[in-house]
Amino acid sequence: HIELTFHKAIKRQQRYNSAAGNNRTRSVVFLDDGGLPNEKKMILKCLHPFLDESPVSFVAASNRAFDAANANRMVTLYRSRLTDKDLYHLAVACLGLENISLDAESKIVVQAICCGLSKVVLNWNSDKWGKFFHYRDFIH
Questions:
Q1: What is d(CA 78, CA 84) in angstroms, rounded to the nearest whole number?
Q2: Which of 56, 61, 71, 109 is 20–30 Å from 115 (CA)?
Q3: What gap in Å lies between CA 72 and CA 64, rounded to an integer?
């Protein structure tokens, strides 16, 4: 499916490039949970030609680092652990309350949700679970 998605994006990019006056539009292939495939199966090896030379952009979100063969073909951004303040602002925005003045009780509830999530994420980073971040689940 990954290769088919790239081929479709390349065809779309070719249409964009041939459109009169349209040289700013860029096709992007987005791979969510790119770190989930078992590294030993080399499922992502099909990315290599597309990462080496491709007219389309590629973005992958992953909870784990990619293997060296893929990582050497891309830029890696690492997101550090969110602070309690970061989580609080994220929660308020997800609830659609960023433009509303919260009363003290509501603030306590939101802070408790954030505190609970922090504890769960910290427990996930134990030897039993390995390093795994789930802030995205907090948004959904």
A1: 18
A2: 61
A3: 15
